[in-house]
Amino acid sequence: MGHKGLITVLKILAYGWMFYIPQIVALSVLGKLAGYSGLLAIFIAASVGYTLRALLMMAISVGLMSIIFWKKPSIEFFKYFLPLSCWGILSLLLRFANLIVPQILQVRILIEQISLVMAWFVSYYRLGTLFRTDKNTTMWPIVGALLIGILVFLLLPPPI
Question: What residue intervals traverse the membrane (predicted)?
């Protein structure tokens, strides 16, 4: 694997890790009860577990799209999940703001859930546009991607 391939793989791992960063931090705080070594152990274990879960979610989505629309899967398809990674960072920032101002709990939850659905929709819409062959008439790949997004949403529920 060349230099560019390694960077692409690291980006994909970062996308998965960033998507679940709010849950990783929340579990790590619980690990703090066992001291700093417990915090580090829980952080590493949660990072590995949640990153693998995100990779599974992305692989199922790309794999199903590749099977249905007969397009050879590529590692570049995973970059279309960037909006979900941005959602993870936004969610983490909102949770830190909630620690500072506890009164915004209901607003934070509402913003998190709306932005999650929007990021999910945008990610799968972008994935569907990648599989379109005729840019003017064919909407089936986009519809298929959104349906696969709903299926993956139900099978591997996102962090809420």
Answer: 12-30, 36-69, 81-101, 107-127, 139-156
